[in-house]
Amino acid sequence: MRTTITVNGDMRALDLDPRMTLLDMLREHLKLTGAKKGCDHGQCGACTVLVNGVRINSCLSLAVMHDGDEVTSIEGVGTADKLHPVQVAFLNQDAFQCGYCTPGQICSTLGMLRELDAGVPSQETPPGAAPVFSEAEIRERMSGNICRCTAYPQIIEAIKQAREAQSLQGFGA
Amino acid sequence: MRPFTYERATSAAGAAKAAALTRGARFIAGGTNLLDLMKLDIERPTHLIDVSRLPMAAIAATAEGGLSLGAAATNSDVAANAEIRARYPVLSEAIVAGGSPQLRNKATVGGNLLQRTRCAYFYDTSKPCNKRAPGSGCSALEGLNRNAAIFGASPHCIATHPSDMSVALVALGARVELVSPSGDTRTLPVADLHRLPGETPQIETELIPGELITAVVLPPPPAGGQLYRKVRDRASYAGGLASVAVAGGQVALGMVAHKPWRAAAAEAALAAGASPAEAIAKELEGASSLGRNDFKVPLVARLTAAAISEVKGRG
Fold first, then answer.
1. What residues of chain A lie within 8 A of the CB of B86, using their CB?
2. pLDDT tens digit sequence for B120-156
3. Which residue from A19, A55, A120 is facing B102, i.e. has the nearest CB?
4. Residue ranges of the alpha helices (H) in chain B?
5. What is the CA radius of gyration of chain B?
């Protein structure tokens, strides 16, 4: 099925089997192997990408349903020469060991910060109040991303550093 | 995943008509539950009708002073809506108690209502399950049934409905709006949308074949406070063992039955002046358990009494 998707700024016209997930399209068709197939059932978050700026599990979404959408995978976040502030923060804070979950953690962080700024509540948000940036909110909002090396304390520190960088200089993506 | 054909619907009535025309057709919107089950060979649609781009994602005021939620509105959009957070906080609280943010960003109102049970035997295609393979038997009766129903179960199925959102919708007295393959529209209380298992646990709702949920309509909120409480094995991103939604004097329970459970006996007792503990005790007179899920009875008693007391205390 003919499908046109903009991936990391490049418009791609593909002919896809309807069964193909967005994750498989990225990995198998476009050879963008940053997003990982961890569980393939939406439980681990390693496949997290941004679709039109919103984080989703790319393993639980059919590629043909994204005709016309703009997808950002980890390959579209920063460059080798100029890392994104979230990537810098993950490096500085040693926020990974094996690195398998990291592309998903970083894409999830970008989506999460945007949701926080848009006032999307979590179960840590008091009823009626605007959400604030706090450790409790980070933990809850990142609960869809599993790290089996258990780098969670460093991931939280990295997100705090990224937030600081964002407040100082702002960031896109 | 088994092969299927795919079409993008251009109207709700057209989608319903197409669904009735093709045997084995299913609607897909967020896909977070359906695709998971298709990968496991539990759901086997031959044709998918994509309703995610139909213009039914709006959240709008109704003439009656309530709110209409488009069936394709995402769980995140509903939970974050200012009007819902202000007037229907129990709904926002229930939604953010379920799934992960990534899932809530895709999952829709309609799909959340129609999600399937998380019973371990429904997921295990090597085991009998009357819901997945009608007539094969219920493995949960003498198996892993810690999370089984305590209300309305049958010897054919003791599975529970896993939704958080639906529990709040039942407590709020919401209705679903439906369109049938012939183009007829009708509404049903959310409390009457799902069926008890009886002898046909594979038939989970009152929807006729091809019928599509187009919206959920909330009446004006009842007087009094609102609250959602959920108990689970892990503090975040885990299915529930039991939950309760309170909206004024209206009470619904989650993960205790094949459907979101309107606690009508408890509501009647509360209205007659009973204490929260007495009211939920009245409801639990109709409960039964199997051993491994015995704990759910006192859990629901305490959880519900605490939630009702907290809401009353606020008022």
1. 128
2. 999 999 999 999 999 999 999 999 999 999 999 999 9
3. A55
4. 12-21, 34-39, 75-80, 82-87, 89-96, 101-106, 109-113, 120-123, 165-171, 264-271, 276-284, 296-314
5. 19
CA distance A116 to B147: 33
DSSP conformational letter for B157: B
Contact A20, A2 (CB under 8 A): no
Which of B:126-155 have CB within 8 Å of A? none
Residue B245 pairs in a beta bridge with B228, B252
Asked if residue A48 lies in contact with residue A58, where contact means CB atoms within 8 angstroms, the answer is yes
Q: Among candidates B89, B148, B103, B118, which has minimal Cα distance to B310?
A: B89
What is the pTM for the complete model shown?
A: 0.97
Q: Mind listing the pLDDT tens digit for each residue in B225-253? A: 999 999 999 999 999 999 999 999 999 99
Query: CA dist B147 to A116, B207, B242, Å?
Result: 33, 26, 9
- Provide the token pair at B120: 């371990």
CB contact under 8 A, A60 and B36: yes
Q: Would an 8 Å CB–CB cutoff place B35 in contact with chain A?
A: yes
User: Cα B305 to chain center, whole Å?
Assistant: 22
Give the chain A residue whose CA is nearest to the CA of B3: A19
* 3 state DSSP class of B127: coil
Low-confidence ranges of chain B (pLDDT < 70): 315
Which DSSP category does B195 fall into?
Answer: -
Mean pLDDT by 10 residues, chain A (173 residues): 97 97 98 98 98 98 98 96 96 97 98 97 95 97 97 98 88 59
- In whole angstroms, give the CA distance from residue B164 to residue B113: 9
Of A55, A62, A64, the CB nearest to B105: A55
Nearest CB to B102 within list A64, A139, A144: A144
The DSSP secondary structure of B17-48, one letter per residue, reads HHHHHSTTEEEESS-TTHHHHHHTTS---SEE
- What CA–CA distance (Å, rounded) separates A21 from A11? 18
Interface list for B 81-120 with A (CB within 8 A):
85-86, 89, 92-93, 96-97, 99-103, 105-106
Residues of chain A contacting residue B36, judged by C-beta atoms under 8 Å apart: 41-42, 60
| Chain A residues touching residue B3 (CB < 8 angstroms) | 19
C-beta of residue A46 within 8 angstroms of C-beta of residue A37: yes
Instruction: Name the helix (H) or strand (E) containing B61.
Output: strand B59-61
